[in-house]
Structures are given as C-alpha cells and as structure tokens.
C-alpha cells in the first residue's frame, strides 16, 4: 500500500539494525522512510523477523550529498562518536521546525547545534536487533524504549503530537526525565562494556566469576560516586544491583564495545567511560578504575 498522503516521512541517519528496525515498523504503518548512510544503494527488499510477526519491507539508502528533500522528521541512530559529524552533514536539509529524535548510547545529543524551533528528543532502548544476513533483520528481543524532550521547544509541546508519529509496534514510553534515563544507560554501559573487553567475556561472566565480580562492584562504586556528585538520584546508589540484573538478563551477549573491537570498528568508549572521566575531572573527582579501563579499550581499538 502506498504511504498515506499526510503521513510523516521519516529520515533515518544511521543504517544499522536499530535504525532499520524503526524503518520497517514505520513502513508497516504506511509511513515513508529514507535511510541516510555513507553508501548509496537503490531500493532493497528486506525481511523483518520479529517476535510476533514477519514481513517484507524496502529500504532506500541515500548519502547526505544525494539528499534533495527537506527533512521534517529525523531519527538519528548512528554510534555516539559519529553523531555530531553525521548531523552536520545533513543540517542544511533540516526544516526550521524539524523533529529530531536521537536514539543512541551516551550524551552526544547534548552537543547537537539545533535551531531555536527545531524539536530535539532523546531516546534509549533495550530492544535487541541484528542483521542475520544482508536481507534479513531480526528483532530478537522486544525491549522498552524511553523517549523525552531535550530542548526547550520540545518541552513545550504535548507528547501526543510526537507519539502518534512513532512506530506503534515498539514499546515506547514518553518521559520528562529522559536525561536521567540516559544517565542510567550510560552508567550500565560504563560498568559492563569495558570490563567485558578486559576479560574478553560475555556479560554473564562479569557476575558469575568472583574475581571479575569484585572488580565490577568496585567499578560501580566509582560510577555511583560521580552520579552522587551530580545528584542524579537514589537509583545510582544501588548501581551494582542494577548492573547485575542487566548482566543476568543479557548473560549470553557479547557487549557492543567488545563486538566493535572484534570487528575492527571504532568503539563508543570515549562517549562512555571517557565521558564519565571528563565529568569526574570537572568535579575534581578521581576515577582511576574508569580511566584504566578507558585506556585499555583505547589501546585495543583501531584509531579513534
Ligand atoms: O552495549 C551493550 O552491549 C548493551 O547496552 C548492554 C546492555 C551492555 C548489553 O550487552
């Protein structure tokens, strides 16, 4: 069925599994989507295998240079370290009142130079998706996605206007404390990812191996100290318990930073433990465990 005449057209910056997942669900509800990526490709036929459904969708990939249309709605799903450069590459195509949703790890959303009437939102998700091959996308785990306003203009507008435009197949929750949610995800990533790289292990081993578990507990204490100085709230006081829950739920996962290293890709470590160490420095707090892990990951990564 062709897209409904007045349905929104979402542009997606970042052609990874999560961006493609949103694209598939938007198409299922007859919204048009265009993926902006570093490589141009004509329309491709893909299949989504999801927990409750299975359907075909098409993906049109353009480079930023090939874009001609004005962008009214933009979803950014790049890696954190690519976010600002990718945004700058399509800035000139964004309408003055564009809606921009940034769905990624870290806090790069706060660095985007948006215009006064552009609405900026951030989102964080526990959805799991991966490409089984270049034609098959798998929505492996139905997670929860929290989404909320970042800039003043987004904060003024009612949630419904945005929520009606988002994929209804996803479990989406609008929240006004999105910064707090981003910090929770950041803290979990700071605790799990680099330690997983150090021990080259799946998430579950971080809690099942007593020696690694003690290191994780100490690391969580250091992260909690920074969160306390920022007055981020009581959730961070029991960080190890929260991290242990995630490590248990994802015990079979190889975390994304270790996956990046194994695939010779640039990691997000500067946006994770690197960001935490920078904040700690600005507060004159010492974070030697995070600093050592940051250096260890950088030493094992391709050029950042
Ligand atoms: O980065 C990751 O891999 C994930 O965010 C998480 C939650 C640590 C699970 O592997």
Automatic annotation (TrEMBL):
Coiled coil stretches, renumbered: none
State the source organism's domain of life: Bacteria
Q: Does the keyword Electron transport apply?
A: no
What range(s) does the Ketopantoate reductase C-terminal domain occupy? 177-298
* Reaction(s) catalysed (UniProt annotation): (R)-pantoate + NADP(+) = 2-dehydropantoate + NADPH + H(+)
Q: What is its EC number?
A: 1.1.1.169
What Pfam families does UniProt report for this protein, alphabetically? ApbA, ApbA_C
Q: Does the keyword Nuclease apply?
A: no
Q: Name one GO biological process term.
A: pantothenate biosynthetic process
Tell me the route in metabolism or biology where this protein functions.
Cofactor biosynthesis; (R)-pantothenate biosynthesis; (R)-pantoate from 3-methyl-2-oxobutanoate: step 2/2
**What InterPro entries does the annotation carry?**
6-PGluconate_DH-like_C_sf, 6PGD_dom2, ApbA, Ketopantoate_reductase, KPA_reductase, KPR_N, NAD(P)-bd_dom_sf
EC category: oxidoreductase
Q: Which GO terms describe its molecular function?
A: 2-dehydropantoate 2-reductase activity; NADP binding
Cellular component, GO annotation: cytoplasm
Keyword terms, alphabetized = NADP, Oxidoreductase, Pantothenate biosynthesis
Ketopantoate reductase N-terminal domain ranges (all copies): 10-151
Q: What does this protein do?
A: Catalyzes the NADPH-dependent reduction of ketopantoate into pantoic acid.
| Family membership | Belongs to the ketopantoate reductase family.
| Name the record gives this protein | 2-dehydropantoate 2-reductase
- Species of provenance: Dasania phycosphaerae
């Amino acid at each position: 069925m062709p897209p409904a005449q007045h349905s929104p057209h979402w542009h997606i910056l970042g052609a990874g599994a999560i961006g493609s997942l949103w694209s598939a669900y938007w198409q299922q509800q007859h919204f048009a989507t265009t993926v902006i990526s570093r490589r141009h490709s004509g329309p491709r036929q893909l299949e989504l295998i999801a927990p409750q459904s299975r359907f075909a969708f098409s993906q049109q990939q353009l480079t930023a240079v090939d874009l001609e249309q004005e962008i009214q709605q933009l979803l950014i799903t790049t890696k954190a370290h690519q976010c600002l450069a990718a945004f700058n590459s399509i800035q000139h195509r964004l309408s003055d009142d564009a809606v921009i949703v940034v769905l990624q790890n870290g806090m790069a959303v706060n660095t985007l130079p948006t215009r006064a009437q552009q609405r900026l939102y951030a989102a964080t998700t526990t959805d799991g998706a991966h490409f089984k091959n270049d034609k098959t996308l798998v929505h492996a785990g139905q997670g929860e996605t929290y989404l909320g306003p970042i800039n003043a203009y987004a904060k003024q507008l009612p949630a419904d206007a945005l929520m009606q435009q988002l994929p209804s197949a996803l479990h989406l929750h609008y929240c006004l404390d999105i910064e707090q949610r981003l910090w929770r995800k950041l803290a979990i990533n700071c605790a799990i990812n680099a330690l997983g790289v150090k021990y080259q292990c799946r998430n579950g081993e971080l809690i099942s191996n007593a020696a690694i578990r003690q290191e994780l507990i100490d690391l969580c204490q250091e992260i909690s100290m920074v969160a306390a100085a920022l007055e981020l709230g009581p959730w961070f006081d029991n960080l190890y318990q929260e991290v242990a829950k995630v490590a248990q739920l994802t015990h079979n996962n190889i975390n994304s930073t270790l996956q990046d290293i194994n695939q010779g890709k640039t990691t997000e470590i500067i946006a994770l433990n690197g960001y935490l160490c920078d904040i700690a420095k600005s507060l004159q707090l010492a974070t030697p465990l995070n600093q050592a892990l940051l250096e260890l990951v950088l030493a094992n990564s391709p050029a950042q």
